[in-house]
Fold these 2 entries.
Entry 1:
Amino acid sequence: MQHRIIVLGAGYTGAVAAGRLARRLHRDDVAVTLVNAEPDFVERVRMHELAVGRDLRPRPFGEMFAGTGVELRLGKVTGVDADRRTVTVVDADGDAGECGYDTLVYALGSGWDDQGVPGTAEHAHEIASRPGALRLRGRLAELGAGQSVVVVGGGLTGLEAATEIAEARPDLAVTLAARDGLGDWLSDRGRGHLRRVLGKLGVTVHEHTAVTGVGADRVTTADGRTLPAAVTVWTTGFAVHPIARNTTLETTGTGRIVVDGTMRSVSHPDVYAVGDAASATGPGGKPLRMSCASGVPTAWQAADAIAARLTGGKLPNTPIRYFNQCISLGRREGLIQYVTADDRAVSAALTGRLAAAYKELVCKGAAWGVANPLLGLPARRRRVVREAARTGPAAKASA
């Protein structure tokens, strides 16, 4: 009987994990199923580009995984029973069905987080998803010259959104509201370049400004000010998919699955979590932040650990570390902030057109890695050791 591996979610981490597992394991021994609500891959790191009117290259999963042995199941995951080892999936027709697994890779990721701020859910736009980016795209197209756009959040997503909108629509009045100081985590060189670019693009910046309410045409701040906003874009952070919190899996207070160094759940050894869904520890004992930079390596780690455990091989022991933070500042400017292994900025930073080209290369490379899951790895697929693949309570006890 084949060992059933189900991967939930086909973002960067889920798609990479599924492809890597297909490369590591013999098809006669395993069945790898990738469950996703959409039939094609979404380049989430480009949603700010989609929002301003740029069309992205289609990447259908049917083409990407053709010949790999990965089976794609289209549907929305509505539940996980980690004790019975089943997932519930609802297809496009609304029909629900259960899928049993021997090993589960949970990669449902994250979405936008309105943080409970009044009016945000009703009036603000998000770019954490393709539907959200497309809604914003339609709304921006309706705006006339001089109308105001307020981007709330001074992190990487907020910076990319504000500069992208300001460059694509120089006729709009773009404002960035940052809770902390502008780019205060960057090096002096990085902060200086960021300020110059925002100034050149005409973006008004309000630092140390917490937004406490969003209306149809304005936002209000903690200090009592009102900022006009024909459109509000909310980028203050991400919240993980809520399903894991409603299971018996051990999770953090924010709903991330607690895992060990191989991305294996500390409470259910037949479950692995990757990307934003996982609460994993990086260099210096610091939690890995939600990002593609750390997410893809967690997918590599999980896939290699699953393959090793099933085939009796050596477990991976590759520390996950950071190298840089890549920020696009429109199409012609960028900022590559070099960092320590635990994500602290160093003095070195790459700026300007070269940094923009570097960021574009990183985005293309990430998509290429998903679209070519069988390339760049040894060709040999290992056979599953039946003793390692056995399931049930006895296997859990001995794991």
Entry 2:
Amino acid sequence: MTNPPTSQGTAELESAPAPIAVLRPLLPPATDVLPFLSRIDASRIYSNYGPLCQELQQGMARWLGAKAGTEGVRVVTASSGTTAIEIALRARALPGRRFCLMPSFTFIASAHAVCNAGLEPVLTDVEADRFTLTPALAEAALAQLPEPPAAVLVVSAFGAPPDVAAWEAFEAAHGIPVVFDAAAAVTSLRQIGHQPLAVSLHATKVFGIGEGGAVITTDGALADRLVANTGFGFASGERVSTERAGNYRISEYAAAVGLATLAGIDAKEQRLLRLGGLYAEALRNSPCRLQHGAGTEWATMTLNVVIPHERLDRTLRQLDAAGIQWRRWWGLGTHHHPAFADLRRTALPVTEDLAPRVIGLPFYEGLTEAEIGRVVEALR
């Protein structure tokens, strides 16, 4: 039996600052979703590309097209960001080839999606400032493979806008299809082309619906094929399976949350950018740096700081002592997970150096300026 706390111990507990969570997702309130739920009750359509799903896809396409200044945008919803990557790879990977280049520094879902698409990941390094695979790094990796890859999976780091133009040039030069794992980047897409951009609509993303994903492209034929890939390979409304696929559709209930999210997404993005600006200002003279552009040039829900080597252990102890949660959102790299430890890979010096030092800070709507001050103080 433990002894009850002394009066001094009770006072210490009462005076200790409240812990700060690393993330607290916030989806639209039930009152915003209710009108769409009433439409489901009236239609008695609950899944299978129902009217709300269609409206969400079309609404997102208009919104994304306007943001990127692009016409002819198509959005194909999927059951998760992971399945969005998978169906995009299935549709684009060159047949008869087995490898898919991808960075080791990414969330583990990327590697699972590659394998689920029937390909073998080949892990590459990333660029140090933006945490991403570049065309130059991919070209260097090509020379180390025994045969050309079926595709390249380019990961947008924590919501950073992908360099679509550079990767279109890479694909044109090498004839290797490119797919973007842009899981957290749905609000930061500045260019949309034929190469599919797979995004996550998980609750932990800026555009969250709870669980879901989507593929974004200007290639209409590809979009039609992606729709078939979410519904057993049925194409053109016929119940004839034209290719091996799966059941990756979203329900009308998920679409209802999505439509409520879409209605308020621009305002939410601005609120998150305001929070990011507060962090950037507070860290201006800190030895710890934010990911390039994160929270100021583009919105994210996973704001990361890069801590210098010599300060890492001490800083993490200070965060713990102050009751401030932190997280390595992507761990130490795909190659450190037992399920993928035996994958073919290039040298990974930047990943090995960077991954331990990229630390996710508390970041969410409702975080106060005082709490940001506590976080920054613990980083000193």
